[in-house]
């Protein structure tokens, strides 16, 4: 039974990746969110109800209507509190959205970034407007219109633009110089290593040299660019991201601490314990007890 379930999930996920998107009413979601691999898809949800959303190492207690943006490279989970939860979900791949020239920058918005704002509380007027966009996407998805992919892509872009208008203080930053471009590419490569979804496949890139090799630049050039743009060393940013992932795995999985340490590239549990305590001031075990 388990093998059959995994087989169905792989087949569904491959079909969804080929299609590039899926839009559905949450109340009618009988298999979509259960069977797709979160690591492959961006996600936008319009929901009404009460829930706790665990995003990276933070938890958001939500009530009422919200717009949620999920990045496939950032771990998140959803705990529904309401007995009735309604709304819409749109899944899409990065390739699907980036087929439009001007779409790439939208994925660099504060909604999809680690440390950004993945959740917006919305008014009833905003909810009704966004509801119509999701309904139109569902309608187009079921149609045989030749250019429906482009139309759905436009609706996704419109939703993101509407969200940006709700947060006028946030601006998409255009990369203007070599240091910023290299730092941006470094962060993209860093985020591609996450989330960790299998304890048996440990993190591959763990040091500044590893990332420099992956980007085909000298490690000194990478360190200089990252330090100039962020004020932090490349190694510090890598360690902070690993620590953030460690917190998420401790909170959102039932893996034991040794498994989490191995998945994050630590050969021995003591190495992971020492690393985590140095970065967070507490042990992995204490963090799990306090937050789970």
From TrEMBL:
Residues 180-290 form the HTH araC/xylS-type domain. PROSITE patterns: HTH_ARAC_FAMILY_2. The keyword Transcription applies. The keyword DNA-binding applies. Keywords: DNA-binding, Transcription, Transcription regulation. GO terms for molecular function: DNA-binding transcription factor activity; sequence-specific DNA binding. Pfam families: HTH_18 (PF12833). It comes from the Bacteria. InterPro entries: Homeodomain-like_sf, HTH_AraC. This is Transcriptional regulator, AraC family. It comes from Lishizhenia tianjinensis.
